[in-house]
């Protein structure tokens, strides 16, 4: 039976993956505050009966807040997997990319909530580039492991 040896440096990608999950959770807490502020209870996700009673401005603001969290949830599992897989080969680089992703998500959320969809662009670019870096790092490490490069 084979065993997997986990190097101590792999703790950094683990901490990055956990931190990304915590940041997503905290982004969701902002939606809870918006639900209370705009009186949009569950299960309304921004297009239901309660949200339909909002003014256009309030509806847009609530949906901007809600969308930042929903978008994060849509990406969460892929990003956490990528930071961990890349971390098997290059733990410090992977961790740095994970932290860069978190900065991108922070800018994305702040921009989207403050300025609407166009405000998310700088954070989107940073988060996407860091995610692509994680994927590239995992692929490169895998190809090295297979002795293709």
Automatic annotation (TrEMBL):
<keyword id="KW-1133">Transmembrane helix</keyword>
<dbReference type="InterPro" id="IPR023352">
    <property type="entry name" value="MAPEG-like_dom_sf"/>
</dbReference>
<keyword id="KW-0812">Transmembrane</keyword>
<dbReference type="GO" id="GO:0004602">
    <property type="term" value="F:glutathione peroxidase activity"/>
</dbReference>
<dbReference type="GO" id="GO:0005635">
    <property type="term" value="C:nuclear envelope"/>
</dbReference>
<dbReference type="InterPro" id="IPR001129">
    <property type="entry name" value="Membr-assoc_MAPEG"/>
</dbReference>
<protein>
    <submittedName>
        <fullName>Uncharacterized protein</fullName>
    </submittedName>
</protein>
<dbReference type="GO" id="GO:0004364">
    <property type="term" value="F:glutathione transferase activity"/>
</dbReference>
<dbReference type="GO" id="GO:0016020">
    <property type="term" value="C:membrane"/>
</dbReference>
<feature type="transmembrane region" description="Helical">
    <location>
        <begin position="81"/>
        <end position="104"/>
    </location>
</feature>
<dbReference type="GO" id="GO:0005783">
    <property type="term" value="C:endoplasmic reticulum"/>
</dbReference>
<keyword id="KW-0472">Membrane</keyword>
<dbReference type="Pfam" id="PF01124">
    <property type="entry name" value="MAPEG"/>
</dbReference>
<feature type="transmembrane region" description="Helical">
    <location>
        <begin position="12"/>
        <end position="32"/>
    </location>
</feature>
<feature type="transmembrane region" description="Helical">
    <location>
        <begin position="124"/>
        <end position="146"/>
    </location>
</feature>
<dbReference type="InterPro" id="IPR050997">
    <property type="entry name" value="MAPEG"/>
</dbReference>
